[in-house]
Every structure is written in structure tokens, then in C-alpha cells.
User: Fold Deaminase from Actinoallomurus iriomotensis.
Amino acid sequence: MRKLTYFVGSTIDGYIAAPDGDFDFFSSHLTEDYLSHLTTEYAETLPTPARAALGIADAPNRRFDAVVMGRGTYEPGLTAGLTSPYAHLRQIVLSRSLPADLDPSVEITAEDPVALVRRLKQEDGLGIWLCGGADLAGQLLPEIDELIVKQYPVVAGSGIPLFRAEFSPRAFTLTGSDVIGEGNLILTYAKTSG
Assistant:
């Protein structure tokens, strides 16, 4: 069975974006070492234009072959004219307001997120990447099998949290940690069974 991985950038204090949704403040922490690590280990999580610019447009997908995101995560690329941000993956956008025919390579659906992920998990293929969105991550928390948190060495004080959900503690086990450069961490957690 395929697994759902929430692969996301975060501040030390657990925010994925500023209160207005901006996440540009992370870019000052994209050191050469860190970008090299992401390019080598997580190439499929880089947008298609970035892959081309980095000379890895044809890099094979090793971890994920599908990406699920909400409208809020999809919208910045759309605003910039990028209708297919991850053309090297199956792209599924959960939205009740976007037209279904924006791009033939992007599936836009108003389907229940949990039902969608459960169906995707039954299909053959690599993993499913949950690409940001506190609300969507909160809805899908029971289905998340793995968390990969790219923790940047910055404290935001407030903003959009990793999850927006009702209080319902769920246990995860730390299964890996990498320190890159001067404080960028990549923390991997697996859902604790039982």
C-alpha cells in the first residue's frame, strides 16, 4: 500500500508560512549545501521549472509519483501563470472554487480529502506527497503515514501552523534526522502504530 507523506518546510516554532501565507522568508536559508541535499534526496518535490534550471529535469522520481495540495498551495504558481507546477508528478488539487479545466495535467477535485487519499493509497505506484496547507494537513492527519519536516533555523512568532485541526494528539516516531549546513534540519517521522 502506498503511503501519504507530509513533506513541508517549517520554522523552529512550527509555522509553514507567515500569517498572510508568504513563505519567502525561508529563501534566505536555502544554502548551497541545503539545496544540493534537496536536489539529490528530494528532487521530485522541486517545481518542474526549478528542476530544469538546476539541470535535473529528467531526474527519476524516487519517493513520490503523486502530489496532493489544496487551492492555497496551488494558487501562488497559478497567479504567476504556472498551471502545472509539478508536471513530473500526478498533480491533484483539492478545491471547490477552481475550474476543473485549468490544465489537462492537473486534476482539480472537490472530493473529500480523506476518501481521495484512501483511494490513492490503494493504487499502485510510489508515495503520495502532501504538499502543504495547514487546513488540508489537519483534515488528512489520520491518513498521514510519514512526516518529513524541513526545519529552518528561524523563529517566526506567529503564522500558519503545520496543522490546523481539533486537539487530537497523534504519536509519531523520529526515524531520521539530517543536519545540513548551519542549522537546516530534515526530520523524518513515522506514524506510531497502535
Observations:
- The CA atoms of residues 84 and 105 lie 7 Å apart.
- Residues 4-191 form a domain with the Dihydrofolate Reductase, subunit A fold (CATH 3.40.430.10).
- DSSP finds five helices and ten strands in the chain.
